[in-house]
Specification:
There is one protein chain. 40% of the residues lie in helices and 17% in strands. By secondary structure, the chain is α/β, with parallel strands linked by helices. It has one domain: Metal-dependent hydrolases (TIM Barrel, Alpha-Beta Barrel), CATH 3.20.20. Strand 5, helix 6 and strand 6 form a beta-alpha-beta unit. Helix 4 packs across helix 5, helix 5 crosses helix 6 and helix 9 crosses helix 10. The radius of gyration is 17 Å and the shape is globular.
């Protein structure tokens, strides 16, 4: 049994054939999924997917570099979103300086709002960080994100960043990137992260793992991520599946297996 801890089932590439996506999940031993919110505008569609399927939950949040909403989410609004049925996490949130030029204070304020909402709701955070790991960890400490914990999703940072996050009680989630041949440093992190602090994900429809690289990703493919981690660590796929599934339900404690 595997869980895809981060996917985007409302995105057109997956939602256009959602019954097929869910069927292929089941056929590949992926029993549950967490579909992730990225904008205020699309949150109702994300929430609807989770409400319609007993093996799917969702988060509430606005992606760090997303500007299409035209306004910032207020704390009370985010708390209201996060209080909904089958909403088990806040995010994805964090910091992403990769494509952003000029002032980035708006990102840091948005991140603080998400952490405060998570603490008010006692729900974990789904954190995205890119080209911003120092500030990400600093704000996590300043806002006491460790009170609720969460996951560093689609992890691509150094072992030192992983250590910093785990010291705050966060899990580390690996995506299809860990299967890429040139991801040598990330593979080493995957060998070192304790199994009890690890999750697996697809971030689908993006980042399809080998042997599907370059094609649209889907939750069924999280099996390949788990297989790569098992090979890197010299353990069985069942061991990775059992540990990451247990970790998921321990972290996202508002989720209950169907």
């Amino acid at each position: 049994m595997l869980v895809d801890s981060h996917c985007h089932l409302d995105f057109p590439e997956l939602n256009a054939d959602l019954p097929g996506v869910l069927s292929r999940m089941r056929d590949n031993g992926v029993t549950h999924a967490l579909t992730i919110s990225t904008t205020l505008e699309t949150f109702p569609a994300v929430h609807a997917v989770a409400q319609a399927h007993p093996n799917v939950w969702c988060s509430a949040g606005v992606h760090p570099d997303e500007r299409r909403d035209g306004r910032e989410v207020a704390l009370d609004e985010l708390v209201s979103m996060g209080s909904g049925e089958r909403v088990v996490a806040i995010g994805e949130t964090g910091l992403d300086y990769y494509r952003v030029e000029g002032d980035t204070e708006w990102q840091r304020e948005r991140f603080r709002t998400h952490i405060r909402a998570a603490r008010r709701l006692a729900k974990p955070l789904v954190i995205h960080t890119r080209a911003a790991s120092g500030d990400t960890l600093r704000l996590m400490r300043e806002e006491n994100a460790g009170e609720v914990g969460g996951v560093m999703h689609c992890f691509t940072e150094s072992w030192e960043v992983a250590q910093g996050a785990m010291e705050l009680g966060f899990h580390i989630s690996f995506s299809g990137i860990v299967t890429f041949k040139n991801a040598k440093d990330l593979k080493e992190v995957a060998r070192r992260v304790p199994l009890q602090r690890m999750l697996v994900e697809t971030d689908s429809p993006y980042l399809a793992p080998v042997p599907h690289r370059g094609k649209p990703n889907q939750p069924a493919f999280v099996k390949h991520v788990a297989e790569e981690i098992a090979a890197l660590r010299g353990i069985t796929l069942d061991e990775v599946a059992r540990a990451t599934t247990d970790n998921f339900f321990h972290l996202f404690r508002h989720a209950r297996p169907a």
